[in-house]
Design a protein that fits this description.
single chain, seven-stranded parallel beta sheet, binds nicotinamide-adenine-dinucleotide, oxidoreductase, oxidoreductase activity, SDR_fam
Length: about 260
């Protein structure tokens, strides 16, 4: 039976764990050939690719430390070399800019280095990935930037992180305008609190934290990576062809009652 993303090539950054892993698995289940971008855990990226292959999909690990123009150029050079081993189609149809630094110090403690690292990974990297992808990106393509509900909420403890996601949403708007004539859609997907390793220390084993985090969402629970992956799969599909330049809320209705 045909699948919605049959014949499509996808790159997911930061896909060795968490939301990126779930998105990579879902895009592969929907038929795409998926590059599993990773920075420093080849074993974990290998495991994701192996799990996808065991399920009948196609995926391969792609070393992809991110932040600079040179990193993006190296990523695409490695992608070009590796994609041909897995499919006869070159180029890329779907880019998911997922990798990010997820926490940030507060106003009083943040250093210039920490601020710069946050913006390099969360904003500069997606910009240069798209810039360097340009000639490889097929018409009718999809760019999905993983933003955050914190871009639109006052959360002073992580304000610099929230600011990176606000900047990413602005990039989304502008890239959508720029790439629209080629029928390439560009959207942000903004999760609320999701149960991933990055939140494990404060969330997973603390019933009070679980209850507080669940109470923020109208749907009454913390998000799961596959909640986000399903929305990413929709945005990647042909059914989402008329949605572009938007930030899609994926928070389970966070703070609707406030
Ligand atoms: P995570 O920390 O589990 O995974 C992030 C991935 O990004 C990791 O694989 C990490 O290695 C990679 N990464 C970080 N810096 C990198 C760099 N410089 N180069 C290459 N890779 C790098 O995070 P997650 O919880 O799965 O979140 C995924 C995305 O969702 C992020 O963009 C995050 O901001 C966003 N998000 C997460 C939540 C949440 O509650 N988990 C909420 C809102 C938004």
């Amino acid at each position: 039976m045909p699948k919605p993303l049959d014949g499509k090539n996808a790159l997911v950054t930061g896909a060795s764990r968490g939301i990126g892993r779930a998105i990579a698995q879902r895009l592969a289940a929907d038929g795409a050939t998926v590059a599993i971008g990773y920075a420093n855990r080849p074993d974990a990226a290998d495991q994701v690719a192996a799990a996808i292959t065991a399920d009948g999909g196609t995926a391969f690990p792609l070393p992809a430390p991110l932040g600079t123009h040179g990193d993006a150029a190296a990523l695409w050079a490695a992608y070009d070399r590796r994609i041909t081993a897995h499919t006869t189609r070159t180029g890329v149809d779907i880019i998911v800019n997922n990798a990010a630094i997820g926490r940030s110090p507060d106003l009083h403690t943040i250093t210039e280095t920490q601020f710069d690292e946050l913006f390099a990974t969360n904003v500069r990297a997606p910009l240069f990935i798209v810039q360097q992808a340009h000639r490889r990106l097929h018409d009718n393509g999809r760019i999905i930037n993983i933003s955050s509900g914190t871009a639109r909420l006052a959360m002073p403890d992580i304000m610099a992180y929230g600011a990176t996601k606000g900047a990413l949403d602005t990039l989304t708007l502008n890239l959508a305008q720029l790439l629209g004539p080629r029928n390439i859609t560009v959207n942000s997907l903004a999760p609320g609190i999701v149960d991933t390793d990055t939140n494990a220390a404060w969330l997973r084993d603390d019933p009070d934290a679980q209850a507080w985090a669940s109470s923020l969402a109208a749907l009454g629970r913390v998000g799961r990576p596959d909640d986000i992956a399903g929305i990413a799969a929709f945005l990647a599909s042909d059914d989402a062809r008329w949605v572009t330049g938007r930030t899609i809320d994926a928070t389970g209705g966070a703070l609707l009652g406030v």
